[in-house]
Write a structure and sequence with these properties.
The protein is mostly helical. Among the domains are: about 1-30; about 125-235, no CATH class. Helix content is about 60%, strand content about 0%. The chain has helices at about 5-30, 45-60, 70-90, 95-110, 135-150, 155-160, 180-190, 200-215, 220-225, 230-235; strands at about 225, 230. It has a two-stranded antiparallel sheet with strand order 1-2. A hairpin with a 2-residue loop joins strand 1 (about 225) and strand 2 (about 230). Helix 5 (about 135-150) packs across helix 7 (about 180-190). The protein is elongated, with a radius of gyration of 25 Å.
Amino acid sequence: MSITNIILIVVVLAIAGYTIYYIIKKKKTAEVEVLVDVDDKTYTIEKMMEFVKKRLDEITKINLYDIGLSEEELKRRKNKKYELKKALKGCTYGDVNDKKYVKELIFDLLEHEYGVTEENISKSIPFDIPSLLTAQDKFDILIYTYKKEFGYEALTEIIKKYDLARLKYVEGETKPSYVITSEEIEEIYEKENIVLSFADKLSVVVQRIYQHYKGYSSIDEVRDMNIDGISGRSIWTSRKFLKPSCTSRW
């Protein structure tokens, strides 16, 4: 065998070896590539919820043994995968810690993978144009803002501050009842004059996505509240709470 042939064989083997090394290294370090086709609907709640569902499904179903991880990284990712699976299961039963874990992950996915920014977040909920906010939007913002200060006493504080725990007549009903109407929410929101940071806005969006994905729809946050020392979970379970389909009241 000539020197030329030997050199060619060595070069080919070196190239092949480097190619294999590069592929393995890339698999070890590469995250799932996320391609977001941006259009007018990209940053709507519906589109973002589709993305979140898909990504969480990918994270929980990925085969970690196929991507050439080191033993330490494999262990770390297995733990993370297990924690997410556990949290996704637990939050459907109302576990507040699991709920917090899932919401934090959704927040991170939307900010760092989906590309939600201060400039496009108002396409999901019109934070900067109060006249376009629905009563549900304003209620969610109020609960979020009060929860930052009062925790699970947030709803109680709103009720006390604005004297909402009183009998009132609702159009179409002959008897008075204890309700919070959309008109009251509109008035309270205007009085509060709330200023939200980008993180605040994204947290409200995350809650909206979460409550339709894994939560209890429009009463998801209310369900976690303590109302006069009684957990909202107990009220909801005993069917004493107003149905979420009542769009004009809570």
